Amino acid sequence: MAKATSTGPRRVAIVSGLRTPFVKASTVFSDLTALDLGRIVVQELVQRSEVDPEEIDSVVFGQVIPGMTAASIAREIVLTAGLPRRIEAYTVARACATSIQSFINAGNAIALGQSHVAITGGTESMSDPPIFASRALAHALVDVSKARTVPAKLKPFQRLTPKDLLPVPPAIAEFTTGLSMGESAEKMAKENGITRLEQDQLTLASHQNASRAWKSGAFDAEVMHVPVPPKYQQTVARDTIVRDDASLESLAALKPVFDRKYGTVTAGNASPLTDGAAALLVMSEERAKSLGYQPLGFLRSHAFAATDPADQLLQGPAYAAPLALDRAGMTLKDIDLVDMHEAFAAQLASNLQAFASKRFATAMGRAAPVGEVDRSRLNVNGGSLALGHPFAATGARLIHQVLRELKRRDLNTALVTVCAQGGLGAAVVLERA
Ligand SMILES: CC(C)(COP(=O)(O)OP(=O)(O)OC[C@H]1O[C@@H](n2cnc3c(N)ncnc32)[C@H](O)[C@@H]1OP(=O)(O)O)[C@@H](O)C(=O)NCCC(=O)NCCS
Q1: Is the pLDDT of residue 171 over 80?
Q2: Nearest atom within ligand 1 for CA of residue 250
Q3: pLDDT for residue 3
Q4: Which of 33, 68, 209, 314 sits CB 3.0–4.6 Å from 382 for a disulfide?
Q5: Cα of 222 from ligand 1 centre, angstroms
Q6: In this structure, what are the phi and psi dihedrals at residue 178, rounded to the nearest 5 degrees?
Q7: Which atom of ligand 1 is nearest to 385's Cα?
């Protein structure tokens, strides 16, 4: 490994990337764990990019809903993928912005000269969430394990009610408000005046763009094929949530899910629970050059920000994007493509509205709003509404997807944003040259 020098921050190059197909939870990837998905995507990324594993010095990977059997998932990926065991690894989580965080952590270490070649990304299996025992059952089981006689071992069970025996699934809900993500999206739709039609139109665009991307072969180099257990006879080669036949009529026919009476958020205009993994190969610009790689692009700037979850939970990008643009020394006018995570169409529309709003900018203490996003440059190959959203994998998917599109169009700059639980927002500015 080359010695770090002290000539100032190094430029962070994204050399390659890869993801599994994204599939609806509890379907074709049901027998795969998040570790399986993370391992196979990292193995194939290493093979496809032909990077010598001995060059890799760190793996930073994330998972949002942690598994209890492989909690240090980044390190387990190194060990199970057959990578050199000296590669250090650690796991990060920043809710839906997890693989933005893992990328930034790896990038910061590269910028400081502490790392030169890293693999980063995220993996999620919503088919395999941890299911907890109730508190009462857990306490009883602990007492049983301490008891020495058979009557003493039986005693703790006597205090349990049938309800205590029910398993407890993880909550996809905001801890402090108790509202589910969908209920929070409903709140944003109502407070920002986002109509059902606007949400369905954004959803339709997402499906149409993703469908066109698949048909044109744009995703062929971004998405690996995954043979699935138990028999490994079936291979998943494509995302399964994208609808080639999406229409406004079929979206309009869906009933609201989170507010059945007055709501506008449906199974169509919400991102579904998804299984999948995505990874990026990142290097210092110098190392990429010395190894003969032409990077897909470079990290120009990033920002994380937060807002009160009780206010507009998924509005984080509207706070993070202007900071990232400031740090890049750019405005929206300098950005060629914008890729925004679509947790819900109502969230996307609310963030676009805030970007354009003078009132929002003033409330943030800024002289001018970010600006109106040109829809023909927004999520041009589809977003999470159509592709799905394996929480920890989405950030890496966005970065890789938009960089490849910049190359196809011979454009230079991109803005990526992600909203996340807790009122968090992430924004990244990327450039090709
Ligand atoms: C919204 C949600 C509850 C729906 O779950 P679900 O009921 O399992 O959804 P399904 O995929 O079964 O869809 C329900 C119906 O809508 C239909 N549908 C879904 N998307 C559609 C689309 N784009 N066009 C037309 N129909 C669609 C399905 O075909 C299904 O129809 P059916 O009942 O006739 O089979 C679930 O996706 C969810 O919780 N999403 C939010 C996840 C979340 O919080 N993410 C965090 C983001 S920060």
Answers
A1: no
A2: 25
A3: 45
A4: 209
A5: 25
A6: 80, -5
A7: 23
pLDDT tens-place string over residues 254-275? 999 999 999 999 999 999 999 9
Gap from CA of 393 to ligand 1 centroid (Å): 20
Please say if 302 is a catalytic residue: no
**Spatial distance between the Cα atoms of 104 and 100, rounded to a whole number of angstroms:** 6
Task: Choose which residue among 23, 65, 271, 394 to substitute to test ligand 1 binding: the one with the highest number of ligand atoms within 8 A of its C-beta.
Answer: 271
What's residue 7's pLDDT? 55
The question of whether 389 is a catalytic residue gets the answer: yes
For residue 268, report the distance from its CA to the centre of ligand 1, in Å.
Answer: 5
How confident is residue 8, by pLDDT bands cut at 50, 70 and 90?
low
Q: Is the dihedral of CA 109, 115, 121, 124 positive or negative?
A: negative
Crossing angle for the helix pair 196-216 and 345-356, nearest 10 degrees?
100
